Every structure is written in structure tokens, then in C-alpha cells.
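queue> pop job 88
queue> type: inverse folding (structure -> sequence)
queue> payload:
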């Protein structure tokens, strides 16, 4: 089996030797810019963006153009964000297998979509960009609340897929209640984490209730008071665009085994809300 690993650290070292400059190493910030530059389930994007970083880190850059299109919505034109993302870029690996002495062609696999037990690239959320062709290991509870509430995978934020909650017409009598969740492992006691997501809101006919919100919860649901909740107010959200959100929390005494991450849709308004690029990463 052959393994070829291209690490950004090596590129920086070679650049120092060949071009005679030294620069302070960029700090790796596990933020939405990193997620946008390296969508974990896209082999083509991983390969092209690792190549971008290999070139970008050879010199000190001040230009605010020439960045990968898929990343500009999250990274903007700040060179520091691209330097940060490149400093914590995943390793580009190609592997080949052989049952005899014949080696098959190699295939890049940036995310083990078939394995629903392991996180990838320091993200504790599995299939956080919904690119694995199914929701697994995400679960939806209940599957629908009344005949007017639906969910599906749809076009994502610079990606193929995102999760979409939708409430159609006529309006349901109660909230279009739905929970999207998965178990999360690996929370460390006392460590600080960022919970990141991209959220898209498109309401039909305006906001029906000022209390409409997307609740984001992380914690041990079997222990009272252990969960941490954040609220994204859909009525005041910028309409028709993905908004990157980031919330900070610390691992508590009750968050050291298997925790539950939930997106709770408590919405009366008609329309749809999309969730994409979900990650939980240590600071």
C-alpha cells in the first residue's frame, strides 16, 4: 500500500529554505472559513484547495483577490483567514490497495462517509455538511408534525447538500415542530469549543410569530441542567442568504461521555430553513 501525504507544514518549511524568508506561523482557527475552504466530503474540493494552500503559503500575500470561490462567502478577502485555514488544512492522502502484487489506482477519500462512528478533521460532528448521500447518523424526531411540515436534503452553502425544514400552506395550527439531532462523542471537561453552522431562512408571507426560532442545543439530555442552548431568531435573520453562526461553550462535568446535539425547529411561519456546515471544534 502506497501513501502520499502532503502537509502544509512541510510546504512552509520548504518555502523558508528555497525562498529565504521566515514568517510567523499562522494560528489555526477552526472556524467557518476552514469549513468552507475544505468541505470535508468533497474529494475534488479538498484536492484543489490543498493545491491552493501549497501555493499560497510559499510567500507572504497582501492581495485580496484570487481566492477559491467556494470560500469567499465565509472567508471574505481577509488574507489572515486564508492563512489560518491553510495552517490547519487536512492532509491530502491517496491510498491504493492490492490483494496480490497488483496495485489498483488510488482514490482520495477526505471523509469516511461509510463510517458513522468517527469524526473527521477535528470536527466532532459527523456528516456535518450533509454530503454523504443520506442523513445518517443524524436523526429526525418526529418525522413530521402534521401534514404541512416536511424535511429533505437540498442544495447547500457552496456544497451539494443541506438539511431543509419546510412548512407549507395552509398553515399548521401549532408550531412546525421538528428535531434534527445526533450523538456527539469526545467532549473534554473544561475545554472550550465552538459550535458552528450555516443557516438559511426563507419565509413566505412574513413572520407569523415573533417567538419563531431555531434552537441549537448541546448536552446530556439525561441530566437536568447540563445542556447548553442557543437561539437563532428566524424572524430577524437576513432572508435568502446563508449566515454563518458560531457559539462558544465549555465541556462540563456532564459532557464527558456521549452528548446530544439538536437543532430544534420551533417555527409557526410558512417557508423553509436550511442548516449546513455544522461543526463542533475545540478552540
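queue> result:
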Amino acid at each position: 500500500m502506497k501513501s502520499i501525504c502532503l502537509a502544509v507544514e512541510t510546504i512552509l518549511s520548504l518555502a523558508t529554505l528555497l525562498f529565504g524568508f521566515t514568517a510567523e506561523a499562522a494560528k489555526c482557527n477552526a472556524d467557518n472559513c476552514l469549513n468552507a475552504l475544505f468541505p470535508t466530503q468533497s474529494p475534488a474540493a479538498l484536492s484543489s484547495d490543498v493545491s491552493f494552500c501549497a501555493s499560497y503559503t510559499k510567500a507572504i500575500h497582501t492581495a485580496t483577490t484570487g481566492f477559491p470561490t467556494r470560500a469567499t462567502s465565509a472567508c471574505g478577502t481577509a488574507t489572515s483567514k486564508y492563512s489560518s485555514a491553510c495552517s490547519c488544512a487536512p492532509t491530502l492522502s491517496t491510498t491504493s490497495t492490492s490483494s496480490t502484487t497488483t496495485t489498483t489506482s488510488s482514490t482520495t477519500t477526505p471523509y469516511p462517509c461509510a463510517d458513522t462512528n468517527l469524526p473527521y478533521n477535528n470536527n466532532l460532528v459527523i456528516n456535518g455538511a450533509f454530503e454523504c448521500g443520506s442523513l445518517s447518523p443524524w436523526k429526525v424526531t418526529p418525522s413530521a408534525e402534521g401534514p404541512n411540515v416536511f424535511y429533505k436534503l437540498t442544495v447547500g452553502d457552496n456544497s451539494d447538500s443541506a438539511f431543509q425544514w419546510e412548512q407549507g400552506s395552509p398553515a399548521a395550527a401549532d408550531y412546525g415542530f421538528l428535531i434534527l439531532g445526533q450523538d456527539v462523542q469526545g467532549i473534554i471537561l473544561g475545554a472550550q469549543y465552538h459550535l458552528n453552522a450555516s443557516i438559511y431562512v426563507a419565509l413566505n408571507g412574513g413572520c407569523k410569530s415573533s417567538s419563531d426560532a431555531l434552537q441549537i442545543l448541546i448536552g446530556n439530555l439525561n441530566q437536568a441542567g447540563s445542556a447548553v442552548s442557543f437561539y437563532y431568531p428566524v424572524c430577524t435573520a437576513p432572508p435568502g442568504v446563508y449566515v454563518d453562526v458560531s457559539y462558544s461553550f465549555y465541556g462540563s462535568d456532564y459532557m464527558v461521555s456521549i452528548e446530544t446535539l439538536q437543532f430544534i425547529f420551533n417555527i409557526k411561519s410558512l417557508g423553509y430553513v436550511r442548516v449546513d456546515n455544522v461543526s463542533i471544534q475545540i478552540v
